[in-house]
Request: fold
Amino acid sequence: MIALPLRRFGRSGLGIVSIGLPIVIFITLSFRAENFLTATNIANVNSQITALLIVALGQLFVALIGGIDISVGSVISLCSALIVTVDPAFAVPVVLVTAVIVGLINGTGVAIFKVHPLIMTLGTMTFFQGMSLLLLSGAGGAVPPALIAMSKSTVGWLPVSFFWSVGALVAAGVLLNKTPFGLRIYAIGSSEQSAAFSGIRVTASRIGCYVICSLCGAIAAIYLTGRIATGDPTMGRPFSLDSVTAIALGGVLLSGGVGGVTAAALGTITLGLMTNGMNILGVSPFFREAVTGVLLLLAVSLQKRKVIGI
Amino acid sequence: MRGLAGLIPFNGGAASKIGADGTVFPLGRSILATARLGLGFIPEDRKSEGLFQTLSIEQNMALGMLRTASMSSVAMIDKDRILSLMQKMQVRARNSQQLVSQLSGGNQQKVMFGRLLSAGVDILLVEEPTRGVDVGAKAEIYRLLRDFADDGGAILMTSSELTEHIGLCDRILVVREGSIVAELPGREATEESIMTYALMGDQATVERA
Reply:
């Protein structure tokens, strides 16, 4: 049953569970929670999951080459702290450059010094979490008004977060499916040795994936900081694990080579609906955190894997 | 062989490719440099060293074609060219979207050739061209190699099947303890003559004379 969807949907990673689960949750919530099927709440879900979607897409790139980036949460925290501390005119460029640097550090550690991605990004996660708390000891600071407008306004009747989601999906989709870079990423994830033997620059591509992941973290941080309208040095904490859970739920193989934008989006929607459902059903947010952990373990253990471990 | 492809360093000596205009390109620097010079390497173990099992035929072949394309360019896979190549090589598959892991050994090997042919290589380094390939497909692969050579390409081939060399090669070089002991024209070589040189080295010449 696990092998069948893999054959039917190929490298997209989609399967019966990853497509069915969000539908089941959606239908269940429509009946169980009366506030669920209102335009306000749907718009609310969209705004809530936009940041997670952006981060999950970044995580997807890293997962496709068989890596994992748990430092992306700290990147979000650090960027959020940076946005309110540096000169407002330079906030966005500073944040993006910082993300590129973090991605280069992660990528270099993993691809050149051969540190295990979990250890490498655990190290940078702790380091950058510390840095962001040094910069900003607690939530506060003033966010440039332009950024707030970029994440909170509406275009017509659509919240602007909708455009953030679509933009991120399209950009990631084009990069993965329409460029040689995307094809090379799948090739590396499929067989690193074959890729190296056929002249693909494996090291450069892997570093590129980590840079993309960190950049996605920075973009998510810009969106979130604007939405909350204040800097928060611990803002990114849940995102590291949530993004991994989201793509795993969508059917992306954490051992590499299998997965796609649709899978990442479906996984994010599943997780987002679940969070929103528990919210309006009045379940404790701590319970939600516990459920995320269980979901991650379930999703990964049910996957057909090449490598035992992650 | 692996030294030429740039996978492992040479034990000694050097090799180079001489271009049509006489320029000399040293070989064995790195995999990437080798690939850029137009050398294609077909490894013995295509499953773990050559093909991408979870990708489709089309993608496997396109990876060769896109080698020259830059990282950022938006490339559309040239489906027509891949289809015509597949037809020319008689790859037996449902369509170009089929996963390589579902193909037979012979057809996988053809896809491997296809990737290099589409990349425009002019020298092929082939290890065990027909390992794990059924008899029918073997003949087709021999024909592919022959066509490639007739079109002006060069092939350096090793195989653990002696008869394969005799049937396929123009020249057979017998290596014994790290040095070439004999050069036989493919048409005149027999299993016996090759083995004599391989086992006895230079002494074989003396005895024969």
